[in-house]
Design brief:
alpha/beta, binds coenzyme A, 12 helices, TIM Barrel, globular, binds magnesium ion, 2 domains, 281 residues
């Protein structure tokens, strides 16, 4: 089973040497090297070479390396692609994607087939989520919850109720087309209790992981988005029980008072595959 964890996806300002250095030792599953909102306009051009040097120096190990460029409708977008196209990133992340045409525009500029992820953070982008997910080069979605809140003019609430339609549309489109889905950031980076609650909500909705802004958020996120010991134990027992009833010619087992059918066994196998992918890191 080809499965890879995306529990923790940390934004690092592409202009900050110290943060780039620090990222090499953080136990994150993926890094977003940011050229967009974490970098001020006067630092944007310089950030390209800072980032290119950091990538050339390497040391990021197994972490998935994602470059977030500026929008192609800004004065920096095309230059970001030209400067970093061959810098060794695994993924290019495009902000404020409104349509599949936006993804195609980046694909044309890249010209090398590098996988593309889309920031889902505009009303139009959410409404076009299925078409965006269907683009053949598109392999991941990142919820841009700060931009979404701004565009929707909604209030920030602990339960993110005003955001549910957008979050679930992102997930629905992602799952329809086999695309990775990463939840938005939690802004109060010193509030561990609030972070944990939001991680749990994102996990329960179906997200693969969460985007992070600060190293202090990594451990909680890795824990919440990994299968727990109890889930691993249950998965093993479900698989064993199902194999046992199958051997006697039946299709349904019972574990802890709940039915186990073939579809539950598929989920159980995915949980075990994810647990061993995490253990192998
Ligand atoms: N990635 C890697 N390292 C980071 C980091 C990040 N996102 N944020 C902070 N650090 C490092 C700091 O460099 C510092 O390292 P040091 O102690 O070895 O020098 C350490 O973590 C502690 O940082 P701290 O002093 O607590 O935070 P700060 O005041 O320097 O920075 C923020 C706070 C929010 C400005 C910073 O975390 C940040 O820029 N985050 C990213 C924001 C972003 O990318 N936004 C765009 C997407 S929403
Ligand atoms: Mg944004």
């Amino acid at each position: 089973m080809d499965i890879r964890p995306y529990r923790s996806v940390l934004y690092i300002p592409g202009s900050k040497d110290r943060a780039l250095e620090k990222a090499r030792d953080l136990p994150v599953d993926a890094i977003i090297f940011d050229l967009e909102d974490a970098v001020t306009p006067d630092a944007k051009v310089e950030a390209r070479s800072t980032l290119a040097q950091a990538l050339a120096a390497g040391g990021f190990g197994e972490r998935v390396k994602i470059i977030r460029i500026n929008g192609l409708d800004t004065e920096w977008g095309a230059g970001d692609v030209a400067a970093l196209r061959d810098a060794g990133a695994d993924v290019f992340l495009l902000p404020k994607v409104n349509s599949a045409d936006d993804v195609q525009a980046l694909s044309d500029l890249l010209g090398n087939g590098t996988p593309i992820w889309a920031m889902m953070e505009t009303p139009l982008g959410i409404l076009n989520a299925a078409a965006i997910a269907a683009h053949p080069q598109l392999t991941g979605f990142v919820a841009g919850t700060n931009d979404l809140a701004k565009e929707l003019n909604c209030r920030s609430r602990a339960d993110r109720l005003p955001m549910q339609m957008a979050l679930q549309t992102i997930l629905m489109a992602a799952r329809a087309y086999g695309v990775i889905a990463i939840d938005g950031v939690y802004n109060q980076f010193k509030d561990e209790i609030g972070l944990r609650a939001e991680c749990e909500q994102g996990r329960d909705l179906g997200f693969d992981g969460k985007t992070l802004i600060h190293p202090a958020q990594v451990d909680v996120t890795n824990e919440v988005f990994a299968p727990s010991e109890a889930e691993i134990d249950l998965a093993r027992r479900q698989i064993a029980a199902y194999e046992e009833v199958q051997a006697s010619g039946q299709g349904v087992a019972v574990v802890d008072g709940k039915i186990v059918e073939n579809l539950h066994v598929e989920t159980a196998k995915k949980i075990l595959a994810m647990a061993s992918a995490i253990a192998a890191l």
